[in-house]
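Box 3.1 A note on notation
Throughout this textbook, protein chains are presented in two layers. The first layer is the amino acid sequence; the second is a token string describing backbone geometry. Keep the layers aligned when reading.
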Amino acid sequence: MISLHSSAIKASLHRSFPTSLRSTLSVSNSARSLIRLPSAGKRNLSVISASVRDSSMSSNNDSHGSSSKVAESFFRSVLGQMETVYLNRNPTPKSVLELVRSVDGEQLCYDHLAFRTFGVGGYGIDSLASFFLDYGYTPMDELKFPAKKLRALWFAPPDVSAIPGGSGVNGPLPRVFISELLVDQMSSQTQDVIRKYTQASPNGKKYAALSSALGTLTWEKPLSSEFEQLARESEYAAWTLVNGYALNHVTISVHRLKSHLNKIKKLNQFLEEKGVKLNSEGGVLKVSPDGGLLQSSTVADSISFKFADGVTKSIPCSYIEFAERLVLPQYQNVPESEIRESHRRDGFEVGNADKIFESTFQEQLSRRAG
């Protein structure tokens, strides 16, 4: 595991990312070096210790100082706009949230938000990570998906209290999961298409968060033939070409629900009985090897998209995920009323995420149509 928790590194991080709008739109050299820090030996991608997480969150909270309320208000407003675009485009997540709230009440917590990017020309993870780093998020683990030619980083939120009565992006700040396509590993034809659009808009990467909040691409619309070409080699690449920095999914924190739906198996059953199609790749329920992280997701919605050549096609859009994090073995004797998020299994799991990526893939979408 990369260690990004020393006081010296944290101090450098916060000096490099002042809380200002200008700095949210670009990534400093020191941040890039942190994000791309090579591994020193084998990583543990399964469990992030509660003590390390708590130490990181405490330091981030201290660093906000008296300006944290202003920064937090702006930050949550941007997240709220990303969420609005996402819910307006995707009826299934909106319906699922309404169904869960009808049983559990209005206050739902998000476990994490997820985004996809092109790892080329500065358009990768770094471009969007800067927005979250500026507001106190901490880079955690890298996950690698060789078969899909992807890598990802997840970011832990600062220790900021939820807005009283807040739900979703106004509740406890969620983790953030950002992935990128390893463009250099793709065929020359696919690389040519991706570079055609990213190079034609070289400064677009500075506005990743703005692009997500507005629901617009930072490059021009592609040709339908180019979308099909990418889809044949990488459905992830095709999705990113037409969706850009759009919120790929939000994730309900299942164990934080207050009703009987706070167990993911019961939630899955409830949703399937309501006619919601769940991603079946690798089984509906994805379980980490240590048994501590349980995840499932819906099949992505589709939207109508008009390409640059005038052709209109149905393309995959976004979905909603569910995550239950179990209490770590060392905290099994802590009374239930005293259990906090830091007592639970943290981080992400390659095996789970690999299957959840396929929520936007054609095989799953065809199940939905059927």
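The two ends are 43 Å apart (CA to CA). Residues 68-89 form the longest helix (22 residues).
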